[in-house]
Queue: 2 jobs
Job 1
Amino acid sequence: MERESSTTYEPKRNCEIRVFESSDEISTDLAEYISQISEISVKERGYFAIALSGGPLVSFLGKLCEAPYNKTLDWSKWYIFWSDERAVAKNHAESNYKLTKEGFIAKVPIPHGHVYSINDNATVEDAATDYEFMIRQLVKVRTIGVSERNDCPKFDLILLAMGADGHVASLFPNHPAMELKDDWVTYITDSPQPPPERITFTLPVINSASNIAIVSTGDDKANAVHLAVSDTTEGPDAPTSLPARMVQPTDGKLVWFLDKEAASSLESMNDDDASFDRHEY
Ligand SMILES: O=C(O)[C@H](O)[C@@H](O)[C@H](O)[C@H](O)COP(=O)(O)O
């Protein structure tokens, strides 16, 4: 795909930032990005283990269901997981599973048995335990890779959205769930955004992925994007408790997909904290 890079900053933090004119352009580039990672993963490991999030993310997967990807990708090697789920029934309008099924999975030939949804028929505590157990089984047989650094699952790709408060998956600012080091999957019962009960990957799992993409649009995200990618470590803006900032792959690659509005605060970064590669397409 032809790309033009308009501005490049010396990267200090380990990420790439792609800025687009419209959601449609994000969708186009994201499809190519996912397709390339899927092909590499299938070639190298025989599988493609991808974790999705809920919310608006599925609306960016439309191009992946169309030509050429619907014909060229080896969908039989895809394994689908969720980085978080809201504690609602699978047929509820707010179910991440339902949103993803209707907007993506039903449109591509991924084998039914490769879709690992989170149990909606248990307490959030039990659902988190079950999901972690299931992931452990799949790590053992290497359907999901393993991080050599910490034995965490190494998903080929984790796709995240970000809220205006900087939350990713169901990890919210200042929430104790952000501190978990040994759990892979946890639950919360006090989400500041409804519904209150949710199941979520922990930061060690997110950060162990080979590839992480954060897709974020809208000017309400501009401040969180700025705090997440800046090098500020002191002062009132020090974003140590911002979940999106804590997404720091240990051995993988992080790419931000932003529209111009979400990227608008990046323009004000000066040379001292211009800490990212910025490309406009
Ligand atoms: O799980 C949820 O309750 C939300 O859907 C959430 O995680 C969402 O991804 C962000 O809030 C970004 O959503 P917007 O880009 O639509 O603001």
Job 2
Amino acid sequence: MAVYKKIAFIGAGAMAEAMISGLIANKLASPEQIIAANRMNTKRLLELQRKYEIKISASAADAVSEAEILILAMKPKDAEDALHSIRDAIHKQHLIISVLAGISTDHISTLLHTDAPVIRAMPNTSAAIGYSATGLAAGKYAEEQHVKQAEELFNCIGTTTCLKEESLHAVTGLAGSGPAYVYYLVEAMQQAASSLNLSETEARDLIAQTLLGAAHMLKMSDEHPLLLRQKVTSPGGTTEAGIQMLDHFKVKEAIESCVKRAAQRSEELGRMYTPPSSEGIV
Ligand SMILES: NC(=O)C1=CN([C@@H]2O[C@H](COP(=O)(O)OP(=O)(O)OC[C@H]3O[C@@H](n4cnc5c(N)ncnc54)[C@H](OP(=O)(O)O)[C@@H]3O)[C@@H](O)[C@H]2O)C=CC1
Ligand SMILES: O=C(O)[C@@H]1CCC=N1
């Protein structure tokens, strides 16, 4: 077990649960080191307590007072209220990690009235099983040791890439939202499998293993994805016939637009919830 500090999740929704589950499963934190608070959904807190045996708090400010590391995990639209509610409990020794899409570290520092270190991270829900692809950027008050601490935390629930803060919009469009694109593809493959008379269980197993195999191949081989694709595609064969349909429906263009639009939306969220007077808007 890593000697870790107490971690408070402010916002106890889907992303918080993915991280909590990953941190506990990977033994970076024990349940008693984790405390979660949300706005008002007590049922949700009790559910997390029952499932993971973590501590819960009806007051976000109390959770902050108990912890050394804070994970901000509310929706961007709720950030202002949430950060106001914990502001008085923040001190300089806190390490603040935000997973909020679009919201800059400068804006968080401004809302919290603090020069405590803030790290902005963009994980994804695969954190729950130790497979998040997380992008990380340091705010202006964060030092090397804070980045290292955040990296250690996120490495425990997947891989971590440190980037400039402006790149986090792209990471959000690509990897933060990424699992949803893959599930969308799976939904379509399952529909096709059903109309080809495969059972849902048979299809799910075949699809999951196919995705796993392709993902491992991408990680283990240096070959360009185009080359890997060509190796599957026999001239005049089944794959070529299938890919012709993807080209016909412009699926490549659709996916490119999807990732770019999601990244753009991250920028929009940042602008929507950051008053023009805030300094250093990213
Ligand atoms: N889901 C994902 O795949 C990813 C999400 N993110 C980011 O994570 C954040 C959370 O997303 P997600 O988990 O999906 O959202 P959810 O809606 O599932 O959870 C949001 C949580 O925030 C709580 N909350 C709202 N207002 C406050 C407040 N004032 N004080 C304390 N807690 C509050 C809510 O509590 P209550 O129910 O009581 O209102 C709820 O528990 C977002 O900013 C998102 O951009 C980042 C990467 C991936
Ligand atoms: O959809 C969203 O806004 C969040 C951020 C990345 C994944 N989910």
